[in-house]
Amino acid sequence: MESLPVIVESKLEMRKLSRYWKTKGNIIGFVPTMGYLHEGHLSLVRAARKRCDKLVVSIFVNPTQFGPREDLEKYPRDLDKDLALCARESVDVVFHPGESEMYPGGFQTYVTVQDISKPMCGVSRPTHFRGVATIVAKLFNMVEPHFAVFGEKDFQQLLVIRKMVEDLDMDIEIVPHPIVREPDGLAMSSRNVYLSAQERRQAVCLSQALTAAQDIFSKGERDAETIKAIARKNIQAMPLAKIDYVELRNASDLSMVDKIDCPCVLALAVFFEKARLIDNCILDPGSGRYNK
Ligand code: AMP
């Protein structure tokens, strides 16, 4: 049986360990998560494991990225299972700080990445990316990794983190990782457990909407409104799905586009009764692959 990873709860201990590893010449990889790990998370962990000597996975349900009426209290948690999964992937340390360790009384400093945080998820979740950028900056300061892996499933989050790292001169490589899906196409998410059986069947409309859009794009369609309309139609075909947004934007800075003449992201957010699901795909008119 695999041995369980070391669990570190103190930020000072985490930093001490990282600095010790660095004195020995180790490359440190980092995968930040909110736990309740699934194959999506584990594929990030495996990608990180391949390119580092010491691998840290953080598990912290970050309160500052939840809005007042969101699911912070209900967010699924299963630390024992997460530890067993991390053991199987040979994770060296699970960093699992408590809330008061991360946000002691009197905490008042936040990181705001301005423009990229505003559209798409920023409209229905106006304080979300401030919370994400703040916690990731704090985790980076505690773990001091050489690189960190983030999923493309949270595409806007990936851009926010990249911009933060660039603007604040953080010496950490941000490594993107492709979306991992269920066999029927639904993007894996800890929040999929909120779906009823009927909703789960209808949730496939997100990936179907993306596939339909990719299909007309590959046949030469470049008009943003036409492509978004196809995506909307697929989602609206499911009675339990309610669109939050369907957006088609420049994949580097999320600026608006009318015609696809640069790599663009088609991004969706869809409400079901208790879950808000997101998904996206890149539409790249260039001959080469979209340059991440
Ligand atoms: P979370 O625990 O939801 O905060 O996610 C932690 C990391 O896992 C983030 O970088 C996510 O983008 C990534 N992630 C979550 N679900 C998936 C997925 N289905 N495919 C790829 N990455 C994912």
Number of strands: 9
Q: Can you give the helix content as a percent range? A: 25-40%
CATH fold-level assignment of the largest domain:
Rossmann fold
By CATH's scheme, which homologous superfamily of the largest domain applies? HUPs
* The CATH class of the largest domain: Alpha Beta
Provide the CATH architecture of the largest domain.
3-Layer(aba) Sandwich
**How many structural domains?**
2
Question: Compute the gyration radius: what is it?
Answer: 19 Å
Strand content: 15-25%
Report the major sheet: 6 strands, parallel
Alpha plus pi helix count: 10
N-to-C series of helices and strands: EHEHEHEHHHEHEHHHEEE
| Low-confidence region ranges | none
Q: Gist?
A:
Helix content is about 35%, strand content about 20%.
Mind explaining what this structure looks like?
This protein is an alpha/beta fold. It folds into two domains: 6-177, Rossmann fold, CATH 3.40.50; 190-291, Pantoate-beta-alanine ligase, C-terminal domain (Pantoate--beta-alanine Ligase, Chain: A,domain 2, 2-Layer Sandwich). Helices cover 36% and strands 18% of the residues. It has ten helices and nine strands. It has helices at residues 11-23, 39-50, 79-88, 99-102, 121-124, 128-143, 155-167, 197-202, 205-218, 224-236, and strands at 6-8, 28-33, 54-59, 93-95, 147-151, 173-177, 242-250, 264-271, 276-283. A six-stranded parallel β-sheet has the order 1-4-3-2-5-6, with helices on both faces. Strands 7-8-9 form a three-stranded antiparallel β-sheet, with helices on one face. Strand 3, helix 3 and strand 4 (93-95) form a beta-alpha-beta unit. The protein is globular, with a radius of gyration of 19 Å. The two termini are 38 Å apart. Adenosine monophosphate binds at residues 33-34, 40-41, 44, 150-151, 153-154, 177, 179-180, 187-190.
